[in-house]
Amino acid sequence: MNEDIENTNLEDLRFAPPTSETSSSDTSGQNIDILIENIGKVVKGHREQIIQIITCLIAKGHILLEDNPGSGKTVLAKTLAYSLSGKNEHSDFKRIQFTPDLLPMDLIGTHLYDEGNKDFIFKKGPLFCNILLADEINRASPKVQSALLECMAENQISIGDQTYKLEDLFFVIATQNPIEMEGTYPLPIAQLDRFFMKINFGYVSEEVELEIYKKQLEIQRSQDAVEAVLKMEDVLMLRSKAEEVHVDEEIIIGINNIVRKTRDHSGIVLGASIRAGIILLKCLRAYAVIHKRNYVIEDDLASLARPVLQHRLLFKNLGAETNAIHSIVKSEIDRLSRLNLRK
Q: Which burial class, exposed, middle or buried, applies to 4 when counting CB atoms under 10 A from its CB (0-12, 13-18, 19+)?
C-alpha cells in the first residue's frame, strides 16, 4: 500500500462516510504527489520516511529523525524545507546546528539596547520561522533543548512578560544521533512528547545504495537545484482537509484500546497518555489525506501506531521495546479486520 499511494482497495470503502466523497480533491492529491516526487529526486530509498514526515507536517506536529551519521537525515529535512519555501527565502526556513556551547538566547533571540530610542528592542532568533531544522538536537544541553518546549507545544515564545506568537505554519524537523554516542544528551520525556513521531532511517537496500553511488553527481545537482513546489497556503489547505477526514467509531475504539493496553503491558513501565492517543488520531487523518482518502482504515493505524507511540513509552528491557508495541497493535488490527464495518 505504501509503495503506491494512488491505489485504493475497494474493500476499504467500508470505512468511508456514507454521505461523503471517498477521495480527496484532485488538487490536493497532485500537490502531495509532486512534493514526494521532488524530495525523492534527492533522497533515495526512503519513501515511507518521506510520507511520515509529510504526515507530521499536515497533522500540525513536529518530527524527530534518529539514526547514525551519514544516513541522510539532514539532507531529507533540508530538501523538504526547500521544496516548501525555496532556497532563497531565508525567512521561511532556518537551520540551527545544535552544539554543547549553544545558549537559549541563540534560539529565542535577545533584547538589544537601541541608542536612537534609548530603549531595549527585541531581536528575534531563528525560532521565528516556518520550518526549523534542529540539527543534532541531542548535542545541546538540556537547558537549550527546553527552549523548544513552549514553541513546539503552543506555537508561541514567552520572554519576561511578553508573549510572541509564531507563524501559523511552524514545523520543527529535528535530527539526532543515537543517544549512546559520545557527547550527546538524551532528550527528556517532556521534550520527546512534543514530537508527533520519532522515526529511524536505517540503511537503504543494496540496489538503491549502488544507484546512489552511480548517480552521485546527478543527485548532488538535484539537491543544489531544489525548488519550491508547494506554497505555504497549500500546506495550510491540506491541514484543513485533514480535519475533515472521517474516522469510523471502531477505529477510534482501536486507538483507545491500543493506548490503554500500553499502560497494562508487563514490559512497559510508563504507558501512553491521552495526548498520545489524540496525536495518533491527528496523524491518521493526515495520513489518509496523503493516500487520497477522506477516511481512515486499519492499515493506517498499523502503519502509524509504532512511530507515534514508541518514543513516548518507557520499557523494562530491550526485548519489550522491540516487541511490546508490535504485539499490542497486531492484536487490535486483527480485531478490526474481523469486523464487518460496511454501511
A: exposed
- What lies within 8 Å, CB to CB, of 159 at 6+ separation is 108, 109, 111, 122
Question: Grid coordinates standing for 108?
Answer: 529565542
User: Which of 80, 102, 209, 89 is CA-nearest to residue 146?
Assistant: 102
Cell of residue 138, nine digits: 541531542
Model confidence over 203-247: pLDDT tens digits? 888 888 898 888 888 888 887 788 888 888 889 999 999 999 999
C-alpha cell at 253: 475504539
What is the band of 67 on the pLDDT scale with cuts at 50, 70, 90? confident
Strands 131-135 and 93-97: parallel
- Report the C-alpha gap between 275 and 64 in whole angstroms: 17
SS (H, E, C) 99-134: CCCCCHHHHHEEEEEECCCCEEEEEECCCCCCEEEE
CA quadruple 301, 253, 61, 228: dihedral positive or negative? positive
Give the Å distances, CA to CA, from 171 to 15, 65, 217, 226: 30, 13, 30, 19
Percent of the chain's residues with pLDDT above 90: 38
Return all residues near 180 (Cβ < 8 A) that are at least 6 apart: none
Average pLDDT over all residues of the chain: 84
The pTM (predicted TM-score) of the whole model is: 0.86
